[in-house]
Amino acid sequence: MPDVAALGAWIEQFLPASVDDGQLADLAPLAGDAGFRCYYRLNTSPSLIGVLAPPEHENNPAFVAKGLALRKAGVHVPQIHGVDFSRGFLLLEDLGDDLFLPLLNPGSVDGMYGAAEKTLHAIQQTPADPTIFPDYSETLLRNEMALFPEWFVGKLLGLELDSGEVQLLEETFACLVSSALAQPQVVVHRDYHSRNLLLMADGAVGVVDFQDAVTGPFTYDLVSLLKDCYIRWPTALVRERALGFLREAWRHHGEGGDQISDDRLLGWFDLMGLQRHIKVLGIFARLWLRDGKSRYLDDLPLVLRYTLEVTQHNKEFEHFNQWFNERLLPAIVRQPWYRPWQQAGD
Asked: Would 319 be classed as within a structural domain?
C-alpha cells in the first residue's frame, strides 16, 4: 500500500517558504497515468502535488534531469521543490486540473493546438544532451512494436502467429524504423497528447508525464498530438496543421534548410503515426491484461482506425493491411470492447 503518511511527513520538510501549509495532512488522491506513480494534491496555498513514485518501477533521477532541462528551454513542466530518490517521494508544482481533453472542441481546437505546437517547438529546441535524452534507437523502436504481437495479437486476441506472419511483421517494422531514423532527430516528449497537456491560467501550456523523453524523430510528438488516441479531428485539419508545423520545424532541424516536399513530410508523419499506434495497441492491451486498467479498452477502436487508415492507403503496407483484415479483424469484432473502427472518434 502507498505510504501516504510517510510522504506527508517528508513533505513538511520541503515546503517552500512562500507556501501557506494550511491543512497539510489532507492529501487528496488524484487520478494517475499509465505508470506506477500515485499523485496527491496538498491543501496548501498555492496547492502542491506530492508524488509516490516507487524507485523499483520509476526512474526518478531521469524525471528530475529531464524536467530541469525542459524548464531551462522554456517549457512549463512542474517545478520540483523536493525529491527523495531512495523512497520515491517528490514535491511538485501543481499545474491545475484543466487538461486539454475535456476543453477541446471545434471552437477551441485552433487556439489550443496553436499553443501546444508553440510549446512543442520549444521542446524540439531543447539541447539533445545524450546523458539526459537517450536516443530513440532502432532497438527501442522495435521493442515498442513488439508489444503488438505479444500483448494485442497473442494475449488479447488469443492468436498464435506462424513463421510467415512473423516475417511480415518484421518487414513492416523494418520499414517503419527506417522512416523514423531518416528524419531530423530532436528532443521528443514521447507522449504528447491531450491527457498530458494542461491549459494554464495565463494561456500557457503545462506539460506533464515527460519522464520517458528521448532524442528521436521530429514528427513523433506532432503525430501524438494531432492523431491523439483519445480524440479525433477531421483529416483536412490534421493535414493542414501537420504541414504548417513540419515546414517550420524543417527550417530549424532539416539538412541545411534544404527544400523538402510536402509529400515527404506527410509520409514521415503518417508512418511515424503507424509505428506509434501499433505500439499503443500493445500497450493498451497490456494495461488491461497486466494492470487491470480496463478504461484503455474503450480507446482501442480509435487506435485501430488510425492504424488501418494508413495501411489501407499506402502500397508499402498492402500485405500488412490484407493480413490485418483477414487474420485479426475476425477475432477483433468478437471482443466486447469492439466498435466499428471506421466511425471510431466521430
From this structure: yes
The domain in which residue 281 lies consists of 100-343
pLDDT at site 278: 98
Contact 303, 284 (CB under 8 A): yes
User: For residues 214 and 134, is the Cβ–Cβ distance under 8 A?
Assistant: yes
How many domains is the chain built from?
2
Q: Which pLDDT score, from 0 to 100, does residue 37 have?
A: 85
Is the Cβ–Cβ distance between 282 and 150 less than 8 Å? yes
Q: What percent of the chain has pLDDT over 70?
A: 96
Angle (CA) 31-33-34 rounded to 5° is: 135
- Whether 4 is in a domain gets the answer no
222 by Cβ neighbours in 10 Å (0-12 / 13-18 / 19+) ranks as buried
**What per-residue confidence (pLDDT) applies to 1?**
47
Q: 208 and 71, same structural domain?
A: no
Give 15-41 pLDDT, tens digit per residue. 887 776 655 556 778 876 656 889 999
What is the separation of C-alpha 300 from the centre of its chain, rounded to a whole number of angstroms?
A: 15
Same-domain check for residues 137 and 251 = yes
Identify whether residues 150 and 86 lie together within a single domain: no
Give burial (CB, 10 Å; 0-12/13-18/19+) of 36: middle
